[in-house]
């Protein structure tokens, strides 16, 4: 998601549109090695052997300089929210209850270092036999509940090695050995309900575990959290639609994790927190403690487990905060469709006249760049719901990539990195605390998490009417897809299920070869149901609201990667502008061969010769061969989904298949 300090609730823009557009980033391609066109946060890059080595990487040495007067002035985020302590403590104690020994732990609100200031709470005699009580059942655990960012800064800097305030006021921290998600260590409980409801098997991100194993890991996580002197508890919301929001509780051991989720989830008002009650879903983040790799279904010391029946998630063996964000996104992919609400991995913005557009695209396609338009309001950049009343952002913040971040390319993200923002795994100057965003010493997957209000043109609350345009972005490094195509419903479903883009492999003996990658629904790692179910819901909503589907290629033209050239960002922006304005609805179209895509004869500001891909290729035979190659890759990928029928007669399934390449 995205955000920047000045809250804009009225819709006025305080800067010129032309200047802002010029400042927006280009879609660039890094050549060679593992960089490629797209970057994936699932890879964990570890360049250190010990914790001390990791901490040494975080700070760069600089030549001594004379200290300058003044300093960084950091704002505050408001007073600590008052909460009914008795009700909150009872609720949290119930969340932390052991399933096999004692009831919930005895809790005190506040930092244990300030225990002398806290009135003594008499111990309540346990009703269980003494032999069933562990040491954790004999002690008090301090609960730090919904702390403010300022308080969390203090906790992190004082108690968590590797936490520093940067020159712009952000909190720099480290996620430990894991600097990305661990999808192979993610597990979902398979029970009588989820066995028939969820997507299992080939292509599915859902790796099964049984209820007993989940409870073993849950007990391990709860025991660890209860053994600590203090734990952090966040009570927050998902989904800006007040009728369909979900109450979530996050119990964690680190201030870094608490501040991260404070930013990424929707922050309750004091009144809402008073009446929060029992959460709909609970995360137990014991990531500093490993799972037992000899436990059934475990393949490493890391395990991220979701139990949809118990509405719980357990994290062991990884401190990467993105596991919490994406774990909850997966939960929303399960809960929302049950309410006939479509959950989407997309960006979303809205014009001044209320026209909403959805942007789908894998990493490197330009989703964030193109959905961030200073002439339009940002509803969100990553996770959304489409209900009977319109669209809503699931999150309350943004999780932006920081590698090679520059003020000129990404001014909004740059300016959002200030007090309250979490900076993960970045490297900074040990004296000035200025961040070097080009430094990959810790990882290439450096990140910033900040509230969406930090983006100046964000729309608060993050809701909007029904979308008019659904834009599917692909970075086609093969260079055979048109820069812009209009899709019918069946084609929209086909390309939505396919979720195509292309990565550019490294150079081997002077030959550069693009590599196709497919991610169902443009977010296969997070979906719970079969992709065709989300596609059917998307088509139904588009048809009901009269929305138009578009396929936009932000990749290559005139040849594949290495021989052709990247389509200019300025041309892509003109195409997106034409979609927003509605002018493309009145254009004349012609169909391409093989894929059967409708391409306009003319788009204002875009050279007509690049609209038809073959015209831009000098070697027409090479174009045809490459086109057939890509069509074959699409067909092979789609074989995973052909056996799943949509509807009672499966007629829609055949329509979707017919919308794919024909050769």
TrEMBL record:
Q: Hey, which pathway is this one from? A: Carbohydrate biosynthesis; gluconeogenesis
Q: What is its EC number?
A: 4.1.1.49
Compartment annotation: Cytoplasm
Superkingdom per UniProt: Eukaryota
One cellular component term (GO) for this entry is: cytosol
Query: What does the subunit comment say?
Result: Monomer.
PANTHER family the UniProt entry points to: PHOSPHOENOLPYRUVATE CARBOXYKINASE (ATP) 2, PHOSPHOENOLPYRUVATE CARBOXYKINASE ATP
Q: What name has this protein been given in UniProt?
A: phosphoenolpyruvate carboxykinase (ATP)
